[in-house]
Amino acid sequence: MFAxxxxxxxxxxxxxxxxKSGESQSISNQRNIIRQYCQDNNITIVREFVDDGxxxxxxxxxxxxxxxxxxDTGLVNTVITKDLSRLGRDMSESSYYxxxxxxxxxxxxxxxxxxxxxxEVNLMAPFQFAMNDVYLRDTSRKIxxxxxxxxxxxxxxxxxxxxxxxxxxxxxxxxxxxxxxxxVQHIFELATKGHSAHAIADILTDESAITPLKYRVxxxxxxxxxxxxxxxxxxxxxxVKRILKNQVYLGHTVLGKTTKVSLKSKKKVNIxxxxxxxxxxxxxxxxxxxxxxxxxxxxxxxxKSWSKYDNVRKSVFNGIIFCEHCGSALCSAGxxxxxxxxxxxxxxxxxxxxxxxxxxxxGARIKYSDLVEIVxxxxxxxxxxxxxxxxxxxxxxxxxxxxxxxxxxxxxxxIEKRISDIDKIILKLYNDNxxxxxxxxxxxxxxxxxxxxxxxxxxxAKEIKKKTDEPYIEDAYKAFFNLVQQYNHIDDxxxxxxxxxxxxxxxxxxILPDKYKIASHNIPYKQNxxxxxxxxxxxxxDERAFNQDNSPTKIA
Length: 556
What we know:
Elements: E1 6-14, H1 16-19, H2 27-40, E2 43-52, H3 62-72, E3 78-81, H4 84-87, H5 91-104, E4 108-111, E5 116-117, H6 125-152, E6 164-167, E7 170-176, H7 181-192, H8 197-206, H9 212-220, H10 225-228, H11 237-245, E8 253-255, E9 258-260, E10 268-270, E11 277-279, H12 289-298, H13 304-307, E12 321-323, E13 330-334, E14 345-349, E15 365-367, H14 368-384, H15 387-434, H16 440-468, H17 473-484, H18 495-501, E16 502-511, E17 525-533, E18 537-538, E19 543-546
């Protein structure tokens, strides 16, 4: 059965999931079975190779790779495992090594429990390889189910982000890491002061702040030599951006951002943000929502490059103001006349110029000082509201929201019914095609149209579900008015104040009286200005009236 002298490498493998099943698959159990087999068959063991905690889905396992290198030395002529699944569970790869690689390298391969011998005819081998592959897929499915359930419960089933550590009393939760949480807060503090990600990275490097990877290598996680070698003392702006964009620092668990291309592939692809699994308020936040929003605004803006120049107009609405008609941003425009800058300062749609690739025929244009006055006046009206006024506004919002939610749910039911009908129509079309009632060209054309309609309806359904699942309207309004109560009166409008209260402003074109076609400084006009406030969205009237001197009238 064996060569005159059988010199063997023995290989043992155990995945983390298999370790939970008990002693039967343990490394010690595999070792005992193989050693006994070698003793009974006069086989000399040259070396033992172990991969403890490695899946059988791929063959880049360190112990297995070390064994292949040892085989190349020519010191062994035999490889032994307890069974075929210890070699691996991927059907094609396992079959390749057992039936092609080892024989071609003059290696006698034996899987004891499966009675597999590469020197013999193995009739059952294809079924054994296939069953191991099925086990792999089934285990993967079960693990995904468990992880999805944990995600929905808000349990943190991933590596703790920089600034947090696992709760020693509850491994499914995270708590602030006293060593790194202050550094995360420092990063957000720098961002809210207007520093760009590049500038923050330079500051942290100059301060000798420890980088996330180096902290993990030195104090938290076990890294191989190759992985540890990537640690550096230099901060990268991409790392800073990743921290500033992560909602985990608001106290929310955000999981499911990436997924594998397939079961057997290591490549990961990004998941759209709307499909992330977000569970709110699962752990202690490191920053406030205001700090997070301010950081998002300033991120990537190198404000120092222009703020030092006095002749540059610095709008407090940068990044949040858009043309109602084309959606383009409004930027500063105007001229200087007799030293007057503020008087001739406008915010204008980027697509108004004829040379624009997407010329906007109805582009928005508004005097900067007018918009400042409108926003400041409206915010001060919120500040002046009494508790009774606020309660009345909240109650009215609750009633309106209840009507809207019921209407949206009716729309959702209709959409879901239509999607179901489309599925039935598509099935009937395929049957009609199979029976020759419609040809392939007709089938393809009709299926394409129905699939487009179905995709559009599914997107609409997703939007409606998102609306109806949003936090209760009362909590949203209370959150907004909690911000309002932090101020007594607003005299000067700053970027910080604007972004504390406002998410977006959409400005429409000027609406002139019927007899006028061209705007002039002495002609009264109206203009839509839609202000979307944080938490509560748009409130009040959009249309604003401007007097003959072009100043806004008192807001009702």
